[in-house]
Structures are given as structure tokens and as C-alpha cells.
Amino acid sequence: GDDVLEAGIEILPVMPPPPPLDAVKDAPQIAASLRAATGAPTRLAWVQGTNFERYTSSSSQVIIMGLDTEDGLGERPILSEPGPYSNPLFTADGKRLVFSNRATLQVHVIDWDGENRRDLGPGDASEVWRDPGTGIDWVYLRSQGGRSDDPIVRRQVDNPKIEESVWNRTPNGHADLPWFQ
Predict the structure, then answer these.
(1) Rounded CA gap, 181 and 98, in Å?
(2) Which candidate in 45, 46, 116, 122 could, as Cys together with 111 as Cys, close a disulfide (CB 3.0–4.6 Å)?
(3) d(Cα 44, Cα 49) in Å, to the nearest integer?
């Protein structure tokens, strides 16, 4: 066909549901369980709101949440100002998040502690990658906001004026944002 489809099935054994957890009181238990499951210190980031949609639209109002198994703080807002944010992506060192604002079509980076939010320019972020030869973090994005025929570029996270074309000769065949992961 002429469209890219994504699908997946996960089959899990049926088990009785665990008792409900209190995110604050049970934070140490949650962190320990996550660390045991991953076998390493772990950070998670997600968008949280009330729209319960599978994606964030330009009118969504969500916050960016995070959880670090090692700091004892439990889940908490990284960016508590509601907005139409999507796809928080970790930099390779896990110290920052790159995300998009679906209303302004701008890409941003913010430190894990919620400080130092910076604009990385126009686009809709898809991936973050660290070049192993140079140590430079790049964000891959649709440069003009998300149409399937928008060029895909990469921009340096710490120097967003440096941008390189990645895909610009054909539509990428994906109705929304392409994910290269």
C-alpha cells in the first residue's frame, strides 16, 4: 500500500489485579519494582492530561511527568504548566527531555528538574540521538510541522542553528510523525 501501518500484539498471562497503589505513599515500592524490572536505575517521562487520547492535539492540555527510581521523589511534574505537549524524549545522558508543542509547532528542551527550558526552533520532534563519534545530541524532526511531505531534518540540541537535511525528496508515507526508533 501507500501508507505505513504500525501494529503490535502483546500476550500476557491473566493474573489477579494488584492492590491499588498510592503514588506518594508507595513511591519507594513503585521505584523498586521498576528498577527490578529494568535491572538498572530508570527514568520515565510521559504526558498526562484528561483527554485520554492516544495522541496530543493542538488543543490538548497536558503536563510532562517524570519518575526517577533513584531520587525517592516518586512521580512528579517536569513541566507543570499545561499545554499541547507531545512525545517527551530523553537525551542520551537522561538529564534532559526534548518535546514538541503541537499548537505552536515548536520543539523545546528542558532539564530533568524542570529548569532551563529552551526553544529549539520550528518543527515536530520525532527522535533524539547522540552521535557516538562526536558526543553531539541531535533531535530529528519534521521541520514544518507534521505533514507527510514536510522535510525531515536533524538539529543539534545544544546548538539548534546547526541543522542538516535527512529526508526531503519524497513524502515519508506516514500520515503523522514518523518514528525511527
Answers:
(1) 15
(2) 116
(3) 16
